[in-house]
Design goal:
- The complex is a heterodimer of chains A (115) and B (113).
- Chain A has 115 residues and is an all-beta fold.
- Chain A has no helices and 12 strands.
- In chain A, the strands form 3 sheets. In chain A, strands 2, 5, 6, 10, 11 and 12 form a 6-stranded mixed β-sheet that branches. A 4-stranded antiparallel β-sheet of chain A has the order 3-9-8-7, with no helix packed on it.
- In chain A, a hairpin with a 5-residue loop joins strand 5 (33-38) and strand 6 (44-50).
- The N and C termini of chain A lie far apart (41 Å).
- Chain B is mainly β and 113 residues long.
- In chain B, strands 2, 4, 5, 6, 9, 10 and 11 form a 7-stranded mixed β-sheet that branches. In chain B, strands 1-3-8-7 form a 4-stranded antiparallel β-sheet, with no helix packed on it.
- Chain B is globular and about 40 Å long.
- The chains are: A mainly beta (115), B mainly beta (113).
């Protein structure tokens, strides 16, 4: 069965500092990987996705993520965070079985931005 | 832009009531999903549907049922609401492909008292 682990429940970063959110996955085949962001009281918005090809993927809002097969990781990074980045971040792996029957999510990382 | 609309942002229901959560998408997606979100547990899949009148159980289907009579609409039903079903419910839709993302609605925060 596929699974996703986000080791950090909370992360606090100063505004302007760099950010890395960790994600490890377990999946039997080539994974389809996603990062979503959820602002307070809102639904989930896709930040970026990895299906194949270049292991460094660029997303919206200045985020990027790197797929490392040897480490089963897909960490999210941003060189300089803004106060508006404060939110919940979810890593997800796609497709159980033979079709797009839902994403498996990690438990999320809550990002706090200090002024 | 894909739009997934959930009919209510906030609901308060009494224990034992039958509750309907409605979701509509406007991008002709075949797949639709209902997730439940709880602090510290992330998102958990309740049910999904890959076609009209078709449904599949997810990870936590107990106490829930679903209905999909039209392609654009997917309803989550709590037959007899209980306090442990107090949660945020998120609807999503996607194309029937492995390499595609899901698009989410704004969520419905349900409180059962």
């Amino acid at each position: 069965a596929q699974s996703v682990t986000q080791p950090d429940i909370h992360i606090t970063v100063s505004e302007g500092a760099s950010l890395e959110l960790r994600c490890n996955y377990s999946y039997g085949a080539t994974p389809y990987l996603f990062w979503y962001v959820q602002s307070p009281g809102q639904g989930l918005q896709l930040l970026l996705k990895y299906f194949s090809g270049d292991t460094l993927v660029q997303g919206i809002k200045g985020f990027e993520a790197e797929f490392k097969r040897s480490q089963s990781s897909f960490n999210l990074r941003k060189p300089s965070v803004h106060w508006s980045d404060a939110a919940e971040y979810f890593c997800a792996v796609g497709a159980r079985g033979g079709g797009a029957d839902g994403l498996t999510f990690g438990k999320g990382t809550h990002l706090i931005i200090q002024p | 832009d894909v739009k997934v609309t959930q009919s209510s942002r906030y609901l308060v229901k009494r224990t034992g009531e039958k509750v309907f959560l409605e979701c509509v998408q406007d991008m002709d997606h075949e797949n639709m999903f209902w997730y439940r979100q709880d602090p510290g547990l992330g998102l958990r899949l309740i049910y999904f549907s890959y076609d009209v009148k078709m449904k599949e159980k997810g990870d936590i289907p107990e106490g829930y049922s679903v209905s999909r009579e039209k392609k654009e609409r997917f309803s989550l039903i709590l037959e007899s609401a209980s306090t442990n079903q107090t949660s945020m419910y998120l609807c999503a839709s996607s194309l029937p492909l492995m390499n595609t993302e899901a698009f989410f609605g704004q969520g419905t925060r349900l409180t059962v008292v």
